[in-house]
Automatic annotation (TrEMBL):
GO terms for molecular function: ATP binding; protein kinase activity. Keywords: Kinase, Transferase. SMART domains: S_TKc (SM00220). This is Kinase-like protein. Gene3D superfamilies: Transferase(Phosphotransferase) domain 1 (1.10.510.10). Pfam families: Pkinase. Residues 1-265 form the Protein kinase domain. It comes from Favolaschia claudopus.
Length: 265
């Protein structure tokens, strides 16, 4: 499918997708919220709805619909092998303001065996490779954005708001501080690159193996500044040499040179 065909599919009128809905206040479970969006379930908790809001319209302009359309586009381009499946679009006043996905299982690594964690880590590596092979960069890799698909147990990614085409990448649009590198903070205007995802994958593997968040925010007055000055997850807490080496490989990764082509490293 060409990009033009994809855009026509995304912008089709309400009802053209089987799962489309017009906005009504939800009585489901609230999952998360920010200044840009609200995430919650429908009443029977079979679906998750991500609804973009215009709380920051005075800063960004009234572009919540464009943000929703952009994320839908990235999820479709990534495909069902990498992205949580789209169920339908959410409309308000004739504009797309969000979308629905199946309510998949969060990544549960707290109560599983080391062998299960190894398999989980291997599947996460394969997932990130699939994203990059499709020409995309996710931009916010972390365990909270990895889901287990209920239908087949496969790992997929959610929250594609920060995803970009690798060949057209600009500076990061989204991101989570604890999963970003020192070199990113030293030059935040550098175009997003697959190495951003790989560094974040290393932090995520540390979190899965050690079973805790990489940093305690109460111990860091300025986490971004501390990371820029060399703070990284403590590898001494990883009790397996092979896993420790794997994490270090990802944390030691460097960004491509400015004149390098995407994927050279």
């Amino acid at each position: 499918m060409s990009l033009d065909d994809l855009n026509r599919q995304i912008s089709a009128p309400l009802g053209e997708w089987a799962g489309d809905l017009d906005y009504v206040p939800s009585r489901g479970q609230h999952l998360s919220s920010s200044g840009l969006c609200i995430v919650g379930t429908n009443q029977d908790e079979s679906l998750v709805c991500k609804m973009y809001i215009d709380a920051n319209a005075h800063v960004y302009g009234n572009n919540f619909s464009a943000r929703a359309v952009r994320e839908i586009r990235m999820m479709l381009l990534a495909g069902s092998d990498s992205a949580v499946r789209l169920h339908g679009r959410l409309f308000q006043g004739g504009e797309i303001m969000g979308f629905f996905t199946p309510y998949e299982k969060p990544l549960d690594y707290a109560s599983v065996s080391s062998e299960t964690k190894r398999r989980m880590i291997s599947e996460m590596e394969a997932l990130v490779r699939r994203v990059h092979e499709s020409g995309l960069i996710h931009g916010d890799i972390k365990p909270d954005n990895v889901l287990i698909r209920r239908s087949d147990g496969k790992l997929v990614l959610c929250d594609w708001a920060g995803a970009q085409f690798e060949k057209d990448a600009v500076m990061p649009l989204e991101g989570t501080t604890g999963y970003q590198s020192a070199w990113r903070f030293k030059n935040y205007e550098r175009p997003l690159c697959r190495e951003d995802d790989l560094y974040a994958l290393g932090v995520s593997i540390w979190q899965i193996w050690v079973n805790k968040d990489p940093f305690n925010p109460n111990e860091h007055e300025d986490l971004e500044d501390d990371i820029m000055n060399g703070l990284r997850p403590d590898l001494n807490q990883v009790d397996d040499e092979e896993v420790r080496r794997l994490i270090k490989t990802y944390l030691d990764i460097s960004p491509p040179h400015r004149d390098a082509k995407p994927g050279d490293l």
